[in-house]
Structure formats: structure tokens, C-alpha cells
Design goal:
3-stranded antiparallel β-sheet, mainly beta
């Protein structure tokens, strides 16, 4: 079977046409024949961009400053306003914590990008 008759997402042969859309009943993916040609380009452009509280784009290795006092769950420690954080690493945290870093006196911690600004 040729590649045009396969689902671009799961490569299933069980596809059907509904109007101008093709539908895969196995993965529920819907596409047009024109969009299936552009599918690899779309997946490359869907990278996750992390921005700080002021809208600046963050990257691995950046230095940040904390802009809000942050209480650490399960501890009596607090990350104070103005704390400098160096050499961050961006992670894909499902709970919104998308920055992994080390803070002197506290240790390894994950932060939300909405509470930091680029230094």
C-alpha cells in the first residue's frame, strides 16, 4: 500500500474520507491531503518556548533573578526576592515548573518561569 493511503500519525491502513478530510478511526487523526505533505515541517516548528515574567525568551545556561518570594513546600526555607540563579536548565514540567536549577543554601529546585526575570 502506498504512503498516501496511510495515516500520517499512526500509519494505519484503516482510513476513510469524509468530505475533504481523511480520518483515521484508530488514532482519531484528521488531515487534508495537502497538510499531510507538510506534516514533517509542522513537527519541527512545535518546540516549546519558555519566557520569563517580562516576556524574554529563556535558554539553557541563562542567569535569572527571582521576582517573588517563593515558599518551598515541605520545608521552612524561602527563596527571597532578588535571589540570583545561574546556569539554568529548561525542562518540560507538566505542572508548570519548567526551570531546573541550583540555589545556594537551598539546593536543586524547579521554578516556574512566571516568577523569574532574565538577569
Amino acid at each position: 500500500m502506498n504512503a498516501e493511503k496511510l495515516c500520517p500519525k499512526c500509519e494505519s491502513e484503516n482510513i476513510y474520507q469524509d468530505g475533504n478530510l481523511w480520518i483515521c478511526p484508530e488514532c482519531a487523526h484528521e488531515w487534508t491531503p495537502e497538510s499531510s505533505k507538510d506534516a514533517p515541517a509542522e513537527t519541527d516548528s512545535q518546540t516549546h518556548v519558555v519566557r520569563d515574567a517580562h516576556g524574554n525568551i529563556l535558554a539553557d545556561g541563562d542567569s535569572l533573578t527571582v521576582i517573588k518570594e517563593l515558599k518551598i513546600k515541605g520545608s521552612s526555607s524561602v527563596v527571597k526576592v532578588g535571589t540570583k540563579v545561574k546556569n539554568i536548565r529548561l525542562v518540560d514540567g507538566g505542572d508548570g515548573h519548567d526551570i531546573a536549577c541550583k540555589i545556594d543554601g537551598i539546593g536543586a529546585i524547579n521554578l516556574k518561569s512566571e516568577f523569574v526575570k532574565k538577569a
